[in-house]
Amino acid sequence: MKYLTITVPCFNSQDYIKRCMDSLLVGGSDVEIIIVDDGSTDKTAEIADKYKEQYPDIVRVVHKENGGHGSGVNKGLELATGMYFKVVDSDDWLDSNSYKKLINKIKMFCKKENSLEKRRFPDLFVCNYIYDHLMEGVQKPMNYRNVFPVERICGWKNIGRFRVSQYLIMHALVFRTKILQKAGIKLPEHMFYVDNLFANQPLPYVKYIYYMDIGLYHYFLGREDQSVNEKMLIKRIDQQIYVTKLVIQSFNYKKIKKQYPKLEKYLCRNGSIMLAISSIHLLLMQTKEAKQKRRALWKEIKEYDRGLYYRFRYQTISGFTYLPGSIGDYLTLWGYKAARKIVKFQ
Fold first, then answer.
1. Helices 261-285 and 306-314, interaxial angle, to 10°?
2. Which of 74, 114, 211, 330 could make an S-S bridge to 126, C-beta 3.0–4.6 Å?
3. Cα gap 189→205, rounded to integer Å
4. From CA 319, how far away is CA 346, in angstroms rounded?
């Protein structure tokens, strides 16, 4: 039995896939690692096949035509046999000790599956992650101690408040595979930023959460071609806008609010953050076309759900990124640059 499936989407990852894979092999035979070679043109495929040859009971390799990060995640989920599922990007890695603790905890719960405690089987494990500016030697740990009780099963009614700079990203999450299947996860192909959809769309299907206060995931930052690099965010602004709208329009907010009001509040706040990021980067472009796209984005949200629009406009952080006039634009950009220095999110 495989307790955990880890999917590693790869495209031209020859320079860092070994670091990633060596960190994942620590899980041993309890783990299934699916490398999805997404049409690489360097030595990624060769390196992946060598890992498969050396660890045939742990590593599986899929070679496919290029379809983007979402396509790689889709393929991994399609083939997954593990009880739980995690995505690890090929330039990132896991902390060995934290990784072992996670696997042991999953095994513990799986052994109780036939007992009375099955009713409170975690649908989602949440772990800490680290923004790792490896080249600069700077790390920014992120935790959820104020949101979830540590090492205790809880539901959405028992969570605390998220801070402004705190939200659930793909790197912090380990979903039960059945939950992802039930949520119908199918990420868009040839598209960046789809991890936002992966991290949010399944949440209403999650009943029980288990938080481990361990620094599991190292999220590597600093590459010039990285999708979260500001230049790349601006270059791919249309994809960013598209995914923002997809995430915001994924939920029946009224239905979720009746069952899980704290989750509904979080989803609204997260949509607000994504909307703010898109608004800011459109503003940074300083072009007439970008300003038109910014107005069109807010207009579409208003047409989709007028009540949600007014919450975004006047009750959440995104409202501060759509202030009127040139003074409003100046204040928005000043606040954004200040936040970058304080939070160091890029």
1. 70
2. 211
3. 23
4. 22
Structure tokens at 173: 């999450």
Alpha-carbon distance of 189 to 209, in angstroms, equals 29
Contact 83, 110 (CB under 8 A): yes
Q: How far apart are CA 222 and CA 66, in angstroms?
A: 24
pLDDT value of residue 234: 82
Say what percent of the chain tops pLDDT 90.
70
Give the separation between CA 12 and CA 37, rounded to whole angstroms. Answer: 8
CA 322/CA 276 separation, integer angstroms: 8
**Would you say the C-alpha torsion 76, 80, 86, 91 has a positive or negative sign?**
negative
- Give pLDDT tens digits for 116-132: 555 678 999 999 999 98
The Cα 292–Cα 289 span in angstroms is: 5
Residue 76 burial (CB count, 10 A)? 24
Strands 31-38 vs 209-220: parallel, antiparallel or unpaired: unpaired
Radius of gyration of the chain (CA): 20
* The predicted structure's pLDDT at residue 191: 93
**SS3 category, 217:** strand
Report how far residue 36's alpha carbon sits from residue 43's, in angstroms, rounded to the nearest whole number.
14
Residue 150 DSSP class: B
Local structure of 115: helix, strand or coil: coil
Contact 278, 240 (CB under 8 A): yes
Instruction: Name the amino acid, one letter, at 327.
Output: I
Contact indicator for 170, 197 with CB cutoff of 8 Å: no
Long-range contacts (CB closer than 8 Å, 24 or more residues apart) made by 292-298: 293/237, 293/241, 294/322, 297/241, 297/244, 297/245, 298/322
Q: Which two tokens stand for residue 103?
A: 């696997």
Separation in Å, CA 295 to CA 209, 313, 319: 38, 12, 13
Residue 74 near residue 88, CB atoms below 8 Å: no
Is 171 strand, coil or helix?
helix
7-48 tens-digit pLDDT? 999 999 999 999 999 999 999 999 999 999 999 999 999 999
